[in-house]
């Protein structure tokens, strides 16, 4: 049967800080099966714990005497086969390197690991073809300084959190295993060991790469946030830039579903609605009835993109456009007031006001001529407005009409001046308007009084000023070759008239308006000097 050896007694004394009589034989399994704890094992353990409370089994109450006893047997075997120099004195290492036959067996003795002797500082389980998950029982030996599990077939998640138990661990080798890659949140774990601890472990190819990954992630997240912020910023900016784009639904809402109540005008090509945007601002919505080709839509948008940039007190602010396939529209600020034709025919404005209107429109035209020569506009008195505060406004633009030659612009401006003086409508077509032109010509310069609006008082200075305007108008109308003045010259001339108006202007409002005209004039002159 079992024999008691003095050596084994000493061994266990060393291991468990006790003196227990233990029977020790060849194979561990046999011993585990056959050996029973001695009768006084109970009191022995208690005495040991009194002497050394840090012993692991002291924490297990009530004592599982059988398990504690079995663990001493395993310990003695392990110490022996691990080639510890003196198992009676110490048990510093578990060396199961390249012992694939017995290593799994020892790993299976959970009761041993639970009472892992405190003397063990190194565990080597390398090159044993160990399969399955990381052998977490080794964490019971929390005092170890070295752990080698390289060259096995361990797989699954590395229980990284448990490694914090091994606070004195300075050597770790998990190389050549099949672990699944670790989550980055445990990156500090990898900082304790360099890449040689994880060679082809499945964990992280190497420390540097891991650090790059960690850095990428640490940096990547803020960068992602930044990118998103920038993206949103861009979106907002984009939306701001495209605050000029109106959708059909916005316009529908603004005009009460394009209700007849809000329909304020209609011409061959467009319906004009008055609307109120959500922000409360009143707008004029001109909806084009023609269906446009893709090319025309593109050009329409190009034109509108320019129009929204126009900024002049005598040009109605263009707020934006709609270029949906089913609805093409241009949106301008709503102007309270009346069109200049109505104003002329119903108000019989005094001469000075007429001059102010000419100068205002001229200022707008000169601005367009100088800054936006590509913009076409409509100078018909019917299509220009006089706001309630007396400012004349160019309100209609020639979209999709690239053929607004300088000659035609000048002609239209000339006709506009004649109308202001005479209160006679020009015929619609350039060719058919010969009558008013001929009529003015026939009375100029000798009978200027005949053509001046009959309702106006015809003081001498008014007649002479009107004659100047008529002369200028006729010059503009003269499409025959080189007679027409250039726009640079027109703008200069008009600013001269403007200064005449300054000298004869009276009243606060007029003065302020003339001052503005004066600024425009300076601008014109400045250009003229260049
Ligand atoms: C061990 O000793 C304690 C007290 O010393 C006693 O209560 C317990 O029953 C004993 N257990 C065995 C299994 O002898
Ligand atoms: C293990 O112990 C036996 C005696 O029980 C001894 O003969 C043998 O040399 C020991 N082996 C090692 C590696 O220490
Ligand atoms: C692993 O163990 C085998 C025998 O089981 C041996 O031939 C081989 O050299 C060992 N490899 C390492 C790296 O220790
Ligand atoms: C680590 O070593 C220190 C000093 O040697 C020791 O006090 C501590 O208990 C050890 N930690 C563990 C978990 O054994
Ligand atoms: C164990 O891993 C080694 C490489 O480390 C491999 O050659 C072997 O096929 C694996 N064995 C099993 C059963 O997965
Ligand atoms: C390992 O950590 C898990 C929690 O992450 C814990 O439940 C388990 O008890 C630990 N194992 C050991 C042996 O300490
Ligand atoms: C990696 O760590 C081991 C000890 O764990 C050390 O021997 C080796 O020099 C280290 N290598 C590098 C590149 O730091
Ligand atoms: C771990 O083991 C592998 C393979 O045996 C070896 O290349 C590597 O250097 C070892 N790492 C350490 C830290 O000793």
Automatic annotation (TrEMBL):
Keyword Iron annotated: no
Domain Protein kinase: 258-530
InterPro entries linked to this entry: Kinase-like_dom_sf (IPR011009), LRR_dom_sf (IPR032675), LRR_receptor-like_kinase (IPR051564), Prot_kinase_dom (IPR000719), Ser-Thr/Tyr_kinase_cat_dom (IPR001245), Tyr_kinase_cat_dom (IPR020635)
Leader peptide range in chain numbering: 1-25
Spans through the membrane: 214-237
Any Pfam family: PK_Tyr_Ser-Thr
Biased composition (Basic and acidic residues): 507-530
Keyword terms, alphabetized: Membrane, Signal, Transmembrane, Transmembrane helix
Entry keyword annotation includes Amino-acid biosynthesis: no
Domain of life: Eukaryota
Annotated region (Disordered), positions in chain: 504-530
A cellular component term, taken from the record's GO annotations: membrane
UniProt-listed SMART domains: TyrKc
Name by which UniProt lists this protein: Probable LRR receptor-like serine/threonine-protein kinase At4g30520
Species of provenance: Sesamum indicum (Oriental sesame)
